[in-house]
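Hello,

Following up on my earlier ticket. Below are the two sequence lines again, exactly as submitted.
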Amino acid sequence: MEKEIERLIESLNPDERAIFPHLKEKTLDKISKSSGLDKIKTLRALQFLNNKHIVKLKASEKKIVDLADNGVVYLRSGLPERRLLDMLSKQKSADIKDIRKACKLSENEVKAAIGVLKKKTMIQLQKEKIILKASISEIRKKNLEEQLIEALPLPLGDLKPEQKLAFENLKSRKNIIQVKRKKQITARLTELGKKVMQEDLTKLKDMIETLTPEMIKTGSWKGKKFRRYDIKSPLPEISGGKRHFVNQAVEYAKKIWLEMGFKEMTSTLCQTSFWNFDALFTAQDHPVRELQDTFYIKDVKGKLPDKNILKEVKKAHESGVKESKGWQYEWREDEAKKVILRTHTTCLSAKTLARLKENKDKQGKFFAIGKCFRNETLDWSHGFEFNQTEGIVIDREANFRHLLGYLHEFFKKMGFEKIRFAPAYFPYTEPSVEISCWNEEKKLWLELGGAGIFRPEVVVPLLGEYIPVLAWGPGFDRMIMNYYQIKDLREMYKNNLTQLRKIKLWLK
Amino acid sequence: MAIVKFPRKQFEKVAGKIDEKMQERIALFGTPLESLNQEEIEIEIFPNRPDLLSLQGYLRSFLAFLGKKTGLKEYKVNKPEKNYEVKIDKSVKDVRPFTACAIINEINFNDENIKEVIDIQEKIHSTFGRNRKKIAIGIYPLEKISLPIRYEARKPSDIKFIPLESNREMTGNQILKQHPTGRNYGYLLKGKPKYPVFADSAGEILSMPPIINSEKTGKITEKTKDVFIECSGFNLEVLKKTLNILVTTFADMGGKIYQMNLKYKNKKEITPNLEPEKMKINLENINKLLGLDLNGKQVKKLLEKMGYNYSLGDNEVQIPAWRTDILHEVDIAEDIAIAYGYDKLIPEIPQIATIGEEDKKEKIKRKISEILTGLKFLEISTYHLLTKQDMKKTNIKPGIQVEDSKTDYKILRPSLFPSISKILSENIDAEYPQKVFEIGEIFEPNEKEETGIKEKTKLGIAITPGNFTELRQILEYLARMLSIKLEIKEEQKKGFIEGRTGKISYKGEEIGIIGEIHPSLLKNWHLKMPLVYLEIELEKILESLVCS
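Thanks for your patience. The regenerated structure is below:
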């Protein structure tokens, strides 16, 4: 035996071996029937043989004539014309109006039965009566239609002429027969298959299929061969448990900040306008505070922090701190009390500064990553929830180049090699900077987010004195979309389980 | 956010060809380039720089930045001529108390620059002017009005004139109700007993700010040579700055600036005043803030590139009278950095050791996620806002809501269940079994909280098809892994199957529920498979684990 064929034969699994002698039957159904293996197993075995080039499978469609709903009933209780004949065989003639009840047929069935028998000249109509014309032997004989429904299912193409006739007759009647399309799979032995066919497969019965604990214990495997596996056959996909891909990215970003020595800040999603806007020197008439940009919560009023901070923030807005002039308007507590869904994580930084006020040592590095909200529509490029990553460095020696240093490092670790810093504007930072990354595909700079050094009008009221505070708060979603090549923002929180199962891991 | 469009030809004539390098300069000047075609260049102007909203204003600053025309640009300001006067009546005090005015002579108007003027006006209105609330600008053809001018407030019924884009005389009330511009901006005057007007010495009304000008006396045409300009609002300083932006733009169009005497009740003002503001700066502070080591000469050169003058002797910066954004030394520092070039600043990480620290509760939340993904669960992440429909399907009454949501999502979720069942209902075509979880915040009203809302971190777990036993095993495994003891007691709850539902307690306090969801509820969500669900509040558990 050629070595190759031997290896091939050794790789046949029990099901493949079981159907092997029956391959000459050609169709899946017949192979299954004659081998005694169920259809699913037969099909799988055929596919394996196909992979091994022993057979070539061909899928085709075949029309099959089968019983429809009424046909199933008639097969059991007889066609209407049979029931009418049964009645007539006893009484030779009958009133049409009596037939329904006597034969237990519907109006339509009676009509059909009469029509059929008349056509076959087995009865004659006389006024309201029908008279039997056929002989007893004629009656006893099963008619073509009856023969056909007993023989079903049959392939449409295989019908004999008389079956074809019966088929045409029954087709026009209601729900007796139907034509189903059926996929048919045929297997043809290849040249290789023919060679294998010539080999003696019975000796393979001795090959070990599954290695059992019993065999290991008794050593019964000795002297036997293990059946070879087809180690390249395609397999159904499986999937495991997984964090949501956005959270995988969040965890990674967290790790970057932790490695760079930052402490995590957390806070609630609902905040007072005071922390979200006023403490960050955002004038009360600033457009970002309008209903159409920010989610205000109905029917709740927030509480303001202690008088001291309040007084200082009010002063910063109205007339400024130190050499600053402020925004020069009347600052109102009512406006600051409004509760909103935070529009940025920068409110966490403001709160952290206020906490540090009491510390002797007013310094530190802090970060946060979290959900923020804006009153937006929902489409491919807009959404009302988004992630932001926030960081602050409070340090008397901190400067603008340090800010660029931290940002550069963070974005590099996020996978953005080519980034650009450009001037920007935020009410609460000065100098301010916008970070963009170069998109090679689109050949343009894409904005990643903003940063800056908190203005004295922010720092002095919260911290009690001016110490440089480097601060940044880039949106995070664009980075995630970039990594996963997601084009539609809605995909981020669609939670399509099939997609969640398939999506690759965050490999950074 | 304001996007301005300038004709490319005009721009290039003065500034040079917009090639790749020029595009880079535009971005590094702090004005992101939005788009560029053969006809136009589109640039974003940040809200702190209304002086860049006109082509003239933009080029004034940008040419300095390019090093072409550096230093403070000087404009000739002429003293008021006879009758160049505006009397401000005390009646405007309660409605729109201030105005700053000027006259520009000898300007050649044509279709193009009339459009430009209207454009600048609208851009300032919609950005810096907060939709005319803070600032409203009026520009009038001088040939149609008789000086001097009065600014006063009158009863709406006593105000009568033909407003722009109308062909009939209307009263103040009618303008607010019937005129399209009146309907748009009417809220700015609504409820006031008197409305402000500018009127000339012939008694003709010029305009009713901040709403609309008169068709007769408040419309510039190609015949106009001289104009009267006024800005009205609530803060005289802001109005003066705005006026300065406008008059210098007109001057750059070829006009001559004339001052006007403003007679307020207790004081006299002369506007416009283009005298630069002065600010002493501390070089050491600025170098420290930027991380640079610039000497006075370098700073002088950089400041001149940003349109300032700087005198080395007394470290004094002369700030252009049209800059509205210089509140503090740090604002000057930023301009120095821009002139220096953000691209030339070298990023640096200071070598100071600090120790990173993950929030302890966040860490435990992460551990819980790890336990569940180890059990082959998929984590989902859903919106914090729900729709009324979601609430109805879950038989929960809508609780806390947001105002004026642009979508149907307007309810802060009181439970994770609606979110999770919604996701399952959207995934009936995905392969089963489906095992999902989410850790997320829910919202409850609570007056004790700073925001009046208590946020709780909850864990929701769902298995479909699944049964009670399966999920209880998971809950118990989770408890073992976290070394906590949870108790389950039988419970009846709407939406769950009786006898297959339990409440979960931790340290004697109820923290959640576990049970098989009732088929009637499954039907609401069109769920076809049995669903077992649990939801627990993590706060207590996190707190005690953090402390242990």
